[in-house]
Design a protein that fits this description.
heterodimer, A: mainly alpha, Four Helix Bundle (Hemerythrin (Met), subunit A), about 75% helix, elongated, B: mainly alpha, 4 helices
């Protein structure tokens, strides 16, 4: 065996490095780039709904300003702060992994999950209040409080956008539970924290999408 | 065999992940909290029609930039990942632009829902 074979092999000897990567660093960078490609598809996925919002708003400008009154700006703002707080704690969890602070990873991820649950509980009460009034999507809309023949359009778009976003929050909660289980077994360190990093990227993108949903839906009346 | 430890050092020197300080993370978080407070405050002042949307979206863009650059670490990351994000925005603008060229200029514009 020549010395160059040994040299390449030594870089790949960490247990987490899969055989098709040269070393840990290349594996990390590849995973991260793969995640960014996925986030591009997510941006275009949500982009279709943002486009529906724009097209129907251009057709019915007065409807949007009237219907937006039904959304509670304060609860929307609270949920924005909650999600930003959860992005902060995810960033802290990644920092904990980079610093080899095992407890810090678990604590920061646990706070993130708690904040994500607060977000979903607030969303649940917002939805429940609208259902109580008869504000359902599409043809099931029975609310008479908005003087517009097609008031259901705004709420169909509202439910699609916040609903798809909410599903992403739930998936994020699931991913972070998985991360906590792995972290408690000591799976992450400054040498290997790829799952924490790319779940963090996903979570920050969910936050960014809400950063745009909040003004578009809640702040236009 | 003497090259093995040497090469692992070489691998290690490539290992330059950016680590944000806790202070910096809290600084960005605080900026995002303050910008949220500003955009909600502006909402309750009720500034006139086109400007309320421009301010709200403008603040959202600044917030999104802070998250993407400093929480998602694109500021320190490979420029290729930034390029991916920029290309997604370019294609989003194409999607919006080409569709609006149709929907904004229809003779009978508004379909039944």
């Amino acid at each position: 065996m020549s010395s160059s074979d040994i040299a390449i092999d030594s870089g790949a000897h960490n247990s987490h490095v899969q055989h098709h990567f040269v070393n840990s660093e290349q594996q990390f960078e590849s995973s991260k780039m793969g995640m960014w490609v996925f986030l591009v598809t997510e941006i275009l996925f949500f982009g279709g709904l943002f486009l529906a919002y724009i097209v129907y708003r251009a057709w019915n400008p007065e409807l949007y300003t009237a219907a937006s009154e039904e959304l509670n700006t304060i609860w929307g703002a609270v949920n924005t702060l909650v999600l930003i707080g959860s992005s902060l704690t995810v960033a802290m969890a990644i920092r904990s992994a980079q610093m080899n602070q095992q407890k810090g990873i678990v604590i920061n991820l646990a706070i993130t999950i708690a904040l994500a649950c607060v977000f979903m509980v607030i969303k649940y009460f917002e939805y429940a209040h609208k259902f109580h009034l008869g504000i359902f999507p599409g043809e099931y809309y029975t609310y008479t409080g908005i003087d517009h023949p097609k008031a259901n359009i705004f709420f169909s778009i509202y439910y699609m956008m916040t609903g798809l976003h909410g599903i992403h929050v739930l998936i994020g909660i699931g991913l972070m539970i998985w991360l906590i289980v792995k972290a408690r077994k000591g799976a992450f360190s400054s040498e290997y924290y790829t799952p924490v990093e790319i779940t963090g990227l996903y979570w920050h993108l969910v936050d960014v999408i809400w950063i745009f949903l909040f003004p578009l839906l809640y702040l236009i009346d | 065999m003497s090259t093995a430890p040497h090469s692992s050092e070489a691998t290690h020197s490539e290992h330059h992940h950016h680590v944000s300080s806790a202070t910096f993370i809290w600084l960005i978080g605080t900026a995002l909290f303050v910008l949220t407070a500003i955009t909600v405050g502006v909402h309750f002042i009720h500034i006139p029609a086109p400007w309320n949307i421009i301010v709200a979206i403008g603040v959202a863009v600044v917030k999104a930039f802070l998250v993407v650059a400093f929480f998602m670490n694109l500021y320190w990351d490979s420029k290729f990942n930034s390029l991916l994000l920029v290309m997604s925005i370019v294609f989003l603008v194409l999607l919006f632009g080409i569709t609006l060229l149709d929907t904004l200029f229809r003779a009978d514009p508004i379909p039944a829902f």
